[in-house]
Amino acid sequence: VDAATLAEAARDCGGRVVVAEDHWAEGGLGDAVAQALAAATDGPLHLRALAVSAMPTSGKPDELVAAAGIDATAIADAARKLVG
Fold first, then answer.
1. Is residue 36 within 8 Å of 1, Cβ to Cβ?
2. How far apart are CA 10 and CA 13, in angstroms?
3. 24 contacts: CB under 8 Å, gap ≥ 6
4. Which of 9, 28, 60, 66 could form a disulfide with 71, with the two C-beta atoms 3.0–4.6 Å apart?
5. Cα–Cα distance between 29 and 37 in angstroms, integer?
6. Which of 62, 63, 60, 79 is CA-nearest to residue 20?
7. Do 36 and 62 touch, CB atoms closer than 8 A?
8. Following DSSP, what letter does each residue of 9-62 receive, concatenated?
9. pLDDT tens digits, residue range 20-61?
């Protein structure tokens, strides 16, 4: 990951970052972003990582991302919690 760009974006957002990935949390993008930001930022960091936490079932793509909690609504809710 581009740690410098992530750190700049985190600073621009007051240290608030939401990561959403269509993958298991362990060893995923959220972990990579957290590690990069921990090494590259010197201010406060508030990170919400949204990821798949249960075995997916059958369904339409929009149904599956909603069920996993990684759809636009879940991302917006996570962002609101960070600033609220």
1. yes
2. 5
3. 51, 52, 53
4. 66
5. 12
6. 79
7. no
8. HHHHTTTEEEEEEEEESTTSHHHHHHHHHHHH--S--EEEEEEE-S---S--HH
9. 999 999 999 999 999 999 998 888 899 999 999 999 899 999
HSE, CB side, 13 Å, CA atoms: give it for residue 14.
4
Q: Take residue 79 and report the two structure tokens written for it.
A: 């962002």
Half-sphere exposure of 45 (CA within 13 A, CB side): 21
Residue 55, class by beta-carbon neighbours within 10 Å (0-12 exposed, 13-18 middle, 19+ buried)? Answer: exposed
Read off the pTM.
Answer: 0.87
Distance separating alpha carbons of residues 50 and 47, to the nearest angstrom: 10
Contact 37, 10 (CB under 8 A): yes
CA–CA distance, 20 with 73 (Å, rounded to integer) = 12
